[in-house]
TrEMBL record:
UniProt record, GO biological process: DNA repair; DNA-templated DNA replication; error-prone translesion synthesis; SOS response
Highest taxon above the source species: Bacteria
Family: Belongs to the DNA polymerase type-Y family.
Active site: E102
Gene3D superfamilies: 3.30.70.270, 3.40.1170.60, 5' to 3' exonuclease, C-terminal subdomain, DNA polymerase, Y-family, little finger domain
Cellular compartment(s): Cytoplasm
Required cofactor(s): Mg(2+)
Cofactor binding notes: Binds 2 magnesium ions per subunit.
Reactions catalysed, as given in the entry: DNA(n) + a 2'-deoxyribonucleoside 5'-triphosphate = DNA(n+1) + diphosphate
Assembly description: Monomer.
Gene Ontology CC terms: cytosol
Protein name per UniProt: DNA polymerase IV
Length: 398
């Protein structure tokens, strides 16, 4: 028996832009772009004109000159996300958050008390619309992968259920780009091989897919193409890292600009560590150069910390080491992640203990931002800067 379709993938539509349209009625029905220098999000009206996330602001405005460009409001997006996740958890105790705007929900076993998976999804979508004022698309399937594909196909503001008996008919005609893990590079490689649909990939032998795409990638994508995805909705996994990245566009960036962006990212991530009563041992700097090659640099501490000053100093050292390469090749993306997370009660000060002043400052700043908002206190270097420079942080859902 193949099992029932009881996994829901719920994904808010054009999330950042939809929050802006919700909060400003005059923006509804108009093309909206969130972010100035680089597009962080675009409304469906802007997407219809070719605007895409991570596109340079100038290119986006050329495609859609009548778009309304608004600065990001991360506090508003986080608040909306928390409200939506509260509805998720009120629907079922089995919720696996993927990002700020999407999650898997397992609703098997709720039929007697809540109805069929489709009825549950209909109510969930209605509650999100009525209580949070946002549209959400939901896919329902037997596996997480198929549920995610179904929600994407149903967008915008849709609901699609893939019954077990029609899984092949649904998936195999779709383009390979729909497979979870197929990006632009892999898609181009598959296209060169004459493979454009999921069905064409599924027709290959597993060994052939691994030889063409690499062992891990080939095995993963071939399994998905043949409808193999045994992963359950995971409600117990605790995220092993947190991170944020910022697309920079193609124009040259000065060392001061990169330092400012790095500082903003680390500030937010360090606060997220403290909010979750955690510290980290490893700081990872991720870069994408002007030629779109990627690089990763990291440093691991002997013990975990949540102190902004310590984490920022490490991130700056990593960036300084990369500056000669950046000067030669340019940079289009910068990101930071903290890994090897530890609970706050396991944090141990490292001798000599010289972090005390920084700890007190972090505590005071956190309290001010909790009360008056994340933008209420800023570093002097940030004064007068375009608020669109703020790097988006994807909050954790646990």
């Amino acid at each position: 028996m193949r099992g029932e379709a009881t996994v829901l993938h719920a994904d808010l539509d054009a999330f950042y832009a939809s929050v802006e349209q919700r909060d400003a009625p005059e923006l509804r029905g108009r093309p909206v772009i969130v972010g100035g220098g680089v597009v962080l999000a675009a409304s469906y009206e802007a997407k219809a004109r070719g605007v895409r996330t991570a596109m340079g602001g100038r290119q986006a405005r050329d495609l859609c000159p009548d778009a309304v460009v608004v600065p990001p409001r991360m506090d508003a997006y986080s608040e909306a996300s928390r409200a939506v996740f509260a509805i998720f958890r009120d629907t079922t105790p089995f919720v696996e958050g993927l990002s700020i705007d999407e999650a898997f929900l397992e609703v098997g076993g709720l039929r007697r008390i809540a109805g069929t998976p489709e009825q549950i999804a209909v109510r969930l979508r209605g509650r999100v619309r009525a209580e949070v004022g946002l549209a959400i698309s939901v896919g329902i399937a037997r596996t997480k992968f198929l549920a995610k594909v179904a929600s994407a196909v149903s967008k915008p503001d849709g609901l699609l259920m893939v019954e077990p008996e029609r899984e092949s008919a649904f998936l195999l005609p779709l383009p390979v780009e729909r497979l979870w893990g197929v990006g632009a590079v892999t898609a181009e490689k598959l296209h060169r091989l004459g493979i454009r649909t999921v069905g064409q990939l599924a027709e290959l032998e597993s060994a052939t897919a691994e030889r063409l795409l690499g062992r891990a990638t080939g095995a993963h994508l071939h399994a998905l193409a043949r409808l193999r995805d045994p992963r359950p909705v995971d409600t117990t996994h605790r995220r092993g890292s947190i991170g944020s990245q910022r697309a920079l566009g193609n124009r040259p960036r000065t060392a001061d600009e990169l330092d400012l962006i790095l500082t903003q990212v680390v500030d937010r991530l360090a606060r997220r560590l403290r909010d979750g009563d955690r510290g980290c041992r490893t700081v990872v700097l991720r870069l994408r150069y002007g030629d779109f090659a990627k690089a990763t640099r990291s440093r691991t501490l002997r013990s975990a910390t949540d102190r902004t000053a310590v984490l920022l100093a490490i991130a700056r050292e990593l960036l300084a080491a990369a500056m000669p390469e950046i000067a030669e090749r340019g940079i289009t993306l910068i990101g930071v992640s903290f890994s090897h997370l530890a609970r706050g009660d396991r944090l141990q000060p490292e001798l000599p203990i010289d972090w005390e002043d920084g700890a007190r400052l972090d505590t005071v700043l956190d309290a001010v931002r909790d009360r008056f908002g994340a933008a209420s206190v800023a570093r002097a270097a940030q004064l007068g800067r375009d608020p669109g420079w703020s790097a988006p942080l994807l909050p954790e859902h646990e």
